[in-house]
Specification:
The model has no long low-confidence stretch (mean pLDDT 92). The longest helix has 27 residues. By secondary structure, the chain is α/β, with parallel strands linked by helices. It is built from eleven helices and 16 strands. The chain has two domains: 232 residues, Spore Coat Polysaccharide Biosynthesis Protein SpsA, Chain A; 83 residues, no CATH class.
């Protein structure tokens, strides 16, 4: 067994019933062993797993430690070459794991990898042809698409998804490519790198933790790639819906924490300190513009979520440590980091750039 395929479950019994059998069928036993780490579920998930899937290795926790704490505790108990972090609402396809392991075997510089992530909803629509459109294409899924990137202010986007615009998959991004971040919905990482970095940052709890993890890995000289030959389908929003104020709060707070930890910074270099503080200040100003946009739309809970996120970031940064790094950060801002778009993706989006291929 070379890889531990680990589902972190929290009240996801319905997803497990639907997608776990497919995962078992499509994961070769000589390559991967399947684990379910349960984050204190109360929906009968554990009982169902014990009775219906006794061969799946089960790790039980006493409460919900979040995405970060749950995975850190689970992976600390597993000894293998590769860790595969995968959501319970993922439908895998045949050969999904083989393709990535083969790529990483032949690319020692690749420490973190992800498959192409497509929309499960669109896939089901195509399979059942409910739209009556026989020419309907597969569609990328919002959370990861075909590889993650960030702009100079820390806003994430994907090859196949810029802000709210998600592209159809017409094979336009089918080449493997180095990226900035791999989606936590399905991420494969060499276990020694996971341990070297101390796992996911538990102060994040959930959301943005995989971007922070991949950024920290880059600072230590490890690369992240997407391998589109490997395909999975993602439901998305399985734990927190996309319109959740809680999800919005975590995204805004954690993005600022990520910038604070990882942006260029040297105490003996005043210019790097000024650049870092300026970047975070501009980012917070942009956030506040979005907060007032929510207020004008009558979305008071969203407005409050952004304000609370900023307040909590200001508190948390006092006890947040800068990330370790072995790469010099003194030249050209972040341009040397593969996967950074050194302009504002928001400005480009609202001036007409809706596709990754147009950047």
């Amino acid at each position: 067994m070379r890889a531990a395929v680990v589902i972190l479950n929290w009240n996801g019994a319905s997803f497990l019933k639907k997608y776990l059998p497919i995962l078992i069928e499509c994961t070769p036993e000589d390559i991967g062993t399947i684990y379910v780490a349960d984050n204190g579920s109360t929906d009968g998930s554990v009982e169902m797993l014990k009775s219906e899937y006794p061969d799946v290795k089960l790790i039980e926790f006493d409460k919900n430690y979040g995405f970060t704490g749950g995975y850190n505790r689970a992976l600390a108990q597993i000894d293998t070459e590769f860790y595969v972090l995968i959501n319970s609402d993922i439908r895998v396809s045949m050969g999904w794991l083989n393709s990535i392991i083969d790529f990483m075997d032949n690319s020692p510089e690749c420490g973190i990898c992800m498959p192409k992530i497509l929309s499960e909803a669109r896939h089901q629509e195509i399979m059942h042809n409910t739209s009556g459109n026989a020419g309907l294409n597969e569609q990328f899924e919002y959370a990861g698409a075909c590889g993650g990137f960030i702009d100079r202010f820390g806003y994430p986007f994907c090859r196949g998804r810029i802000l709210s615009n998600v592209e159809d998959d017409c094979g336009q991004y089918d080449n493997p490519m180095e990226i900035f971040w791999a989606s936590g919905a399905c991420m494969i990482v060499r276990s020694h790198i996971y341990k070297q970095l101390g796992g996911l940052d538990e102060s994040f709890f959930a959301h943005m933790e995989e971007i922070d993890f991949c950024w920290r890995a880059k600072l230590m000289g490890h690369h992240s790639w997407v391998v589109p030959k490997s395909i999975v389908y993602h439901v998305g929003g399985g734990t927190l819906p996309n319109n959740s104020p809680r999800k919005l709060y975590l995204n805004y707070r954690n993005n600022l924490l990520m910038l604070y930890k990882n942006l260029p910074y040297r105490k003996d270099d005043k210019r790097s300190v000024i650049r870092k503080n300026t970047t975070i200040f501009i980012r917070m100003c942009i956030d506040m513009l979005s907060a007032f946009a929510y207020l004008l739309q009558g979305k008071f809970s969203f407005f409050k979520a952004v304000l609370t996120a900023h307040r909590d970031f200001c508190k948390m940064k006092k006890t947040t440590s800068k990330s370790n790094r072995c790469i010099s950060y003194t030249n050209s801002y972040m341009r040397y980091l593969c996967g950074v778009y050194n302009r504002s993706i928001i400005l480009r989006f609202f001036t007409g750039c809706k596709k990754f291929s147009s950047l």
